[in-house]
Specification:
Length: 392
Amino acid sequence: MSLDFDVTIDSEEEEDPIEDSDTVANIQEVFRQKFFIDFQECATLKKKYITHAASSNDYSKIAIGIGNEMQVYDFTSTGLSKYIGKNEFGQFSHPVSGVKFFNNDPNLVMASTISGEIHMYDLRSFKKVFMFEDDTEILVKPVNCFDVNANDRLICAGTDELKNEVYLLFFDIRERRLMGGFFESHQEEITDVKFHPTDPDSLASGSTDGLINIFDCKQESEDDALLHSLNTCDSINKLKWHQDNKLSCITNTNDLHLYDIDSQDLLKKWERSEITESMKRKSVVDCNIIDCHNIGTEMMFVATSNYNKGECIRSIKFNEKSLDPLANITGNNQIIRASLYNEKDNVYLTFGEGAIISVWKEGMSSDNGTSSKQMKEESSVKKKMKKKANPY
């Protein structure tokens, strides 16, 4: 099912039609780092959203989920180069629900679809290596999200609700088989699963039922595997592991929670209004958290305002005590759906409803606030979007 731009709700139609703008006169005095577009890539000329994005651990490759398709790009300092595969590479009959690279091999990439399939590709041959699915029953278990553990041996997929049950499905990558599943720990659709970045047996799952469950995947039974169950009293959107076994949670109401998994304590909760205040913006209903990222031992999130086609993107550092302004990212012209952060090169990547991949680097602007390279790339993207032929 392709998504249409007309579905987007303008901020004027929201319940609180406040014209969003900055709350401080000089935003650069607050956000000391300033990022500009280094280059952009238009993923398609069709009206489709980029809904999912992932990078290889070395950031040499980027994968996106856009409608019924996964696209993969080589990522260098000079731009993005799309993989043009054969035999319908990355083409599916149903919408993509997640993309993920292997942790230890950037040439192996996977995409899940809502039809319950997880497709694994080898980029060296452009071939589909295998398709994982739960074929033990006639009923298809729609996959909402999935992840690969730290040693690339295990896949966990979270499903939508099916006949009043939801599932965490586990697949053995080496043996190419379904190992089994958990179906008692969540009561509503599972929205995110995240393996611990260094402990291959530790898994966090989140659901619209408000629960974050922590599992030890070495255990054979679900009762033994479930270590902790944290009630957020909200609907969960995204999870992220951080240093010292901290876990952040973005809710579907755009609140941010930070937990200490060892002690099972809620360290801090920030409501959407507090996130908006940290961004130095006026309209709460326009401001959204896109994703959380790591900067060394510190934590950061990317947030946007959807007002005026998403022109405002900002990043905020956070800990259990405070929200601290980090970067102002200027020149955006699409509603953002996903973000990545390359810590080594201090580069942000954003993906959104204009089907554009934007790469942002810190630097100086010209007098009109737009770098010459940025203007060149924006012009190039606009030219591409006017063409009727597919540029690829």
